[in-house]
Amino acid sequence: MPELRKDPVTGTWVVIATERAKRPSDFVKSGEKETDTKKGGFCPFCPGNEKSTPPEVFAFREEGTNPDEEGWSVRVVPNKFAALEPGVAPERHEDSLHETMNGVGAHEVIIETPEHEAAFPELSLEQMVRVVEAWKERYQALSTDKKIRYTQIFRNHGPEAGASLEHPHSQLIATPVVPKTILEELEGVHKYDTNFGKCIYCELLNRELLEETRIVYASAHFVAFCPYASRFPFEIWIIPRQHQEEFGEISSAQIEGLAGILKEITGRLRNTLQDPPYNLVLHTAPYGSDKMYHWHIEILPRLTKVAGFEWGTGFYINPTTPESSAENLR
Amino acid sequence: MPELRKDPVTGTWVVIATERAKRPSDFVKSGEKETDTKKGGFCPFCPGNEKSTPPEVFAFREEGTNPDEEGWSVRVVPNKFAALEPGVAPERHEDSLHETMNGVGAHEVIIETPEHEAAFPELSLEQMVRVVEAWKERYQALSTDKKIRYTQIFRNHGPEAGASLEHPHSQLIATPVVPKTILEELEGVHKYDTNFGKCIYCELLNRELLEETRIVYASAHFVAFCPYASRFPFEIWIIPRQHQEEFGEISSAQIEGLAGILKEITGRLRNTLQDPPYNLVLHTAPYGSDKMYHWHIEILPRLTKVAGFEWGTGFYINPTTPESSAENLR
C-alpha cells in the first residue's frame, strides 16, 4: 500500500505510491504523452463501462436504475490507481529524522457528466449544480472517518495540467494529515486575525470590490478576481461573500451560485485563451478545525512553466499583471 | 520595471514582470511551443553573436581577446528579459494587506560552453570546473550589493523544464528579499539544532551513508542521493560532506569535486532516462545570515506533472520509491 513520508527539513509530505512503482523506461518521453482519448480507445468513465471502474460510492441516477449500471448523471468512484486507500488502520513511525505513515485516506473520481465530449463550461446549470452537490456529498461523507483530517477537491483540465483522461471529471484526495499549504494559510489567517481582529479573506474581498481593477465577475454569493499577487497569468480566485470556514457549510443557494460562477469563469477562460489547461483547487479548513479560515477556490491556468527559480525559491515570475488578466476576462 | 508583490496570506513573493506583459493571444497553445533551436534560426549564445546579448559581466577568455568578442570558454551576461534589475534604489510600500517592492536585483545567464550542441555531462572536467567557478564568481560579486539578500543559481534543462534556449546555460536570479523556501529551510534547520544540537543536513548525510539504499554516488567531497521523502521520481540531492553554510565558501578542491559529481550525476540521468528534462537548483544560506544552514544542490527531473492535488496541498505523489530510483542510477 502507498506510504507517506515527511521531509524532515520543510515538513512537506510525499505519497510514495509503491503500487504504481515504475521503471525508468516508463518515464522515457512521458512528457510527450497525450491525454488518452476515446478515439479507437476505451473510456472507463463512459456509460456502459461502469464495471471497468471500482464500485461507485455515490451517484445521481434515474429512478429505478441500479448502482454500477447506466442511468446516472454524476457518478463518483474510487480511483483505480488510488494514491491513498480507505479501510486500513493508521500506522505512524517516527525517529529523530524521518516520519512515515501508511497511505490511509481516499482517492475518488467525480465523473461530471455521461457525455465524453462535453466541455465543462457547457454543462447545464442543473448538471453543474449536481457536480457541486456531489463534491459536498463526498466531502461530508469523508468527514465522518476519524482517520481523515483533510479532503482536497480538485480538477485537472488538459494534459499539461496533469489530466490523463479526457472525459470530464474532478477528483478528491482525503489525507490523514493536514497538508502543509493549508497549515500555512491557517497560520496567515491567524496572524492577521491577531493583528487586526478580522478575517484576511473577507478583507481581501472588500479591497478587491473597492478597487475593482482585478474583479472578473461578481454574483450574489461569490466574487471571482485575479489576486493582487497572482503567481500565474490569468490566476483566478472564487471566494464566497459570506464568511464561511469549511466547504461543507455551503447552502443550497450557494451551491447554485457556485455552479453559476464556475460555468461563467471556466467559460470565459475557454473563450479568452482557447481552452487553456488549468488546475482548479478547493481550499477549505481541515475537518473539525477550531481555527479561523475562509474556504475558496483557486483556478491556476498552466500557461507558463514552473522552472528552477520557482522550485528553488518558492518565488514566482508572472509575465502578466493580474489587472490586465482581469480586464481581458471581464 | 518589474514589481514584486507579496501574497498577504502565505508570504509568497511574485515578480510581476510588467515589461514582458503579454496578451491572451501570446498564451494560446504556448504549451506546445518547442525550445528555440538553432535550426534555421539564430542563437544569441553562440560565438560570433556576442553583440546580441547585453554586455558580459564575466568571462573566462583566451588571453588577448576582448569582452563581447569571440575567444571565451564561459561567458556571463545579464538576461535580456530580466525578471529583476540592478542599479536602482529599492522602494517598498506596505499597507495592512499588500506589500510591494520595485524589482531590484539581478538576472544573469551563464553560457556554459561555446558549443551549441554540447551535452552538459559531456563537457570536459576542466570546462565543468570553469562553470562552477563562474557560479562562485558571480555569487560573490553580487554579495557586495547591499540591496541583494539572496542569489538563486539554477539550470533548466529541456523545454518541459522551462528552458527556452537550447544552447547549454545556467542562470542566476538575485533577490532583494529572502525567498520563502529558504526561510522555511532555515526554520527547519534551526528547529533541529534547537532540539538535537546538530545540523540536520549533516545528520541526513550520515544516515544516508549508513543506510546506503538511497546513495547514487559518493566522492571525496560530495554525496549524491535520492532523498527519503523524494517529491519526484529520480530526485537527487548533492550535499558537501563538510558542513558549509554558504555556497560562496566552496574551496578549489571542492569546486573540482562538484564539477566531477555534476558530470557524473547528470550523465547517469541522461543515460538512465534518455536525457530527461530537469531543474537543477542550488540552495544556500542568505548573504550575511547568522543562522545555521548547509548548502546543497537539488536536481528535480520533470517526469511527472504537478497537478491540482499538489498545487492545493503542497503534498506530492511520487510513483517511484527513492530506493529504486537510486538503484537504477547506481
Automatic annotation (TrEMBL), chains A, B:
<feature type="compositionally biased region" description="Basic and acidic residues">
    <location>
        <begin position="24"/>
        <end position="39"/>
    </location>
</feature>
<feature type="binding site">
    <location>
        <position position="43"/>
    </location>
    <ligand>
        <name>Zn(2+)</name>
    </ligand>
</feature>
<dbReference type="InterPro" id="IPR005850">
    <property type="entry name" value="GalP_Utransf_C"/>
</dbReference>
<feature type="active site" description="Tele-UMP-histidine intermediate">
    <location>
        <position position="169"/>
    </location>
</feature>
<keyword id="KW-0119">Carbohydrate metabolism</keyword>
<dbReference type="InterPro" id="IPR005849">
    <property type="entry name" value="GalP_Utransf_N"/>
</dbReference>
<feature type="binding site">
    <location>
        <position position="116"/>
    </location>
    <ligand>
        <name>Zn(2+)</name>
    </ligand>
</feature>
<comment type="similarity">
    <text>Belongs to the galactose-1-phosphate uridylyltransferase type 1 family.</text>
</comment>
<dbReference type="GO" id="GO:0008108">
    <property type="term" value="F:UDP-glucose:hexose-1-phosphate uridylyltransferase activity"/>
</dbReference>
<feature type="binding site">
    <location>
        <position position="46"/>
    </location>
    <ligand>
        <name>Zn(2+)</name>
    </ligand>
</feature>
<keyword id="KW-0299">Galactose metabolism</keyword>
<keyword id="KW-0479">Metal-binding</keyword>
<dbReference type="Pfam" id="PF02744">
    <property type="entry name" value="GalP_UDP_tr_C"/>
</dbReference>
<dbReference type="GO" id="GO:0008270">
    <property type="term" value="F:zinc ion binding"/>
</dbReference>
<dbReference type="Pfam" id="PF01087">
    <property type="entry name" value="GalP_UDP_transf"/>
</dbReference>
<feature type="binding site">
    <location>
        <position position="167"/>
    </location>
    <ligand>
        <name>Zn(2+)</name>
    </ligand>
</feature>
<dbReference type="InterPro" id="IPR036265">
    <property type="entry name" value="HIT-like_sf"/>
</dbReference>
<feature type="domain" description="Galactose-1-phosphate uridyl transferase C-terminal">
    <location>
        <begin position="188"/>
        <end position="303"/>
    </location>
</feature>
<dbReference type="InterPro" id="IPR001937">
    <property type="entry name" value="GalP_UDPtransf1"/>
</dbReference>
<feature type="region of interest" description="Disordered">
    <location>
        <begin position="24"/>
        <end position="47"/>
    </location>
</feature>
<keyword id="KW-0808">Transferase</keyword>
<dbReference type="InterPro" id="IPR053177">
    <property type="entry name" value="ADP-glucose_phosphorylase"/>
</dbReference>
<keyword id="KW-0862">Zinc</keyword>
<protein>
    <recommendedName>
        <fullName>Galactose-1-phosphate uridylyltransferase</fullName>
        <ecNumber>2.7.7.12</ecNumber>
    </recommendedName>
</protein>
<dbReference type="GO" id="GO:0006012">
    <property type="term" value="P:galactose metabolic process"/>
</dbReference>
<feature type="domain" description="Galactose-1-phosphate uridyl transferase N-terminal">
    <location>
        <begin position="3"/>
        <end position="179"/>
    </location>
</feature>
<keyword id="KW-0548">Nucleotidyltransferase</keyword>
